[in-house]
Amino acid sequence: MLDQNNRPQKWEVLDSQTRVKDRFIDVRTDKCRAANGDILDYHVFSYSDWVNVIPFDATTHELVLVDEYRHGIGEPVLGLAGGAVDKEEGLSAEQAARAAAIRELKEETGHSVDAAQLVLKSMTNPATHNNWVYSFIAFDAIDEGETAFDPGDGEFCITVKRDFVEVMQAISTGALHLQAMHVAALWSAASFILKADDLPTTYEPLHTRVRAFLLG
């Protein structure tokens, strides 16, 4: 049941049928033969790649978050600005994700940035999902005030600015619960800040506090 590289063998797809497909979701059922010979029906969710962004306000150096109702859990949830990646001709997957991160930040929070650096690329849920999530950090986000929510999607966010280290402390103690991909992105951002040797000089106090938080 191992392949030539001594990794688990891929399953053989015997048949595939689309169950639901619209602009929000694409679900198919694959009839598969597993490596051990089992035959099973397996559901796969096909999505565009996703992005999220960890932005710091240019004036306050606070983390810029969004507070948004999430219907799956039925509650407002604090988190990062983000969304789906639009494929753009001539751009690599990472370049298209970066453009989407900058766009989503502006649309959801009214903050604009000129650049964003990738801190994490991860699988969303490889058991059932086929897409990737890209997480970017962005400094000196300028608050231009105007949001532009996607029409027809029920989208509405409140922009919330919080001290980055205090957010990380709250996550660590269980006082704050976020979406798992956002938690991974924030920890990656903390690691990036700790290791960076070219942060803007005005972010040195943040670097010092992140170092103390992570290393004690």
Automatic annotation (TrEMBL):
- Lineage, top-rank taxon, reads Bacteria
Q: Which UniProt keywords apply?
A: Hydrolase
Signal peptide stretch: none
Q: Which residues form the Nudix hydrolase domain?
A: 46-189
Any one Gene Ontology molecular-function term assigned to this protein's record:
hydrolase activity
Q: Does the keyword Hydrolase apply?
A: yes
Any matching Pfam family: NUDIX
**Entry protein name:** NUDIX hydrolase
Show the taxonomic lineage. Answer: Bacteria, Pseudomonadati, Pseudomonadota, Alphaproteobacteria, Hyphomicrobiales
